[in-house]
Amino acid sequence: MSVLMTRRGLGAVLGAGVLCAPSLRRAQAQSAKYRLRYGTAFPSDHPGVKRIQEAAAAINKDTGGQVDLQVYPNSQLGGEADMFTQTRSGALDFMSTSGVNQTVVPVGGINAVAFAFESYDKVWAAMDGDLGGFVRAQFGKVGLFVLPKMLDNGYRNITTSARPINNPGDLKGLKIRVPGNQLWVTAFNALGASPTSINFGELYAALQTRVVDGQENPLALIDSAKLYEVQKYIAQTGHIWDGHFIFANARRWNGMPAEIQNAVARNLTDAAEKQRADIATLNDSLVQSLTKAGVTFNTPDKQQFREVLKNAGFYTDWKKRFGDEAWSMLEKYTGAL
């Protein structure tokens, strides 16, 4: 018998055992040899935060208190682009993100080619395998160390306030918020929409005031950021699979002893694997809970959207941008695009 878990229930489970008395936490931080900061745009109750907080506690324990990893959710340390820049420069030790890294390492966004991955089996085979290894190696050339396992941000779906999205024609002229990178922007341009870049922290207000008419995000973020309060429809397009690499400043990482690196890597890898399972659990339950909250769901035929992109030259163009080697690795898992 399957058990569905609500976001609140999952948060309670994840939070158990992570919290400690403030005075003890301060004492641990003061005695730690390595004081590290981890920034993320995920909201504080998102599994991508809860599991990293768990990992931080485990790292502290496994290193005998030598490492104090402080986790800053909800873009407290700046937007994703800011945190990515800070991590490259060494002002920030760790952060996780997806799309913004493409401005520095273009192939870093290849996992987000629209309508590429049909299932999670293919996603994890690719990103835990050859394709992920190839991408991580490119980040090593720009001053970053990348942890071996990605966090799951989830398959992205389109939400709207005025009308449901049933086919590509429904996107024509739609003002839709997308992350500020060319892969997302060109995909929605090719589909006839009018993409607009807005920081995630400002998205709720932009939807509420109709600066944009829609947006696209995974269900877990639609829920945790309460975007369903200002959006009526969710089209389960699953148009992009979005994952977050966990980045570390390479100088900071290489300056830590091997035993410290091993403890950090082991626990962050464990956190990523648990977080993936959390998202799968949430995806099973959120359609029901969001429907109860007043959202209307529909599931469009993805092939219609893929054909529009193909005819617009989207895949041909991005194959040239990413290069034959990377594209061949992608198609090893997705099939011909």
Automatic annotation (TrEMBL):
Pfam families noted in UniProt: DctP (PF03480)
Presence of keyword Cell division: no
Highest taxon listed in the record's lineage: Bacteria
Record's keyword terms, sorted: Signal, Transport
Compartments where located: Cell envelope
UniProt record similarity statement: Belongs to the bacterial solute-binding protein 7 family.
PANTHER family (alphabetical): PTHR33376, SIALIC ACID-BINDING PERIPLASMIC PROTEIN SIAP
Protein name: TRAP transporter substrate-binding protein
Source organism of the structure: Roseomonas elaeocarpi
Lineage: Bacteria, Pseudomonadati, Pseudomonadota, Alphaproteobacteria, Acetobacterales
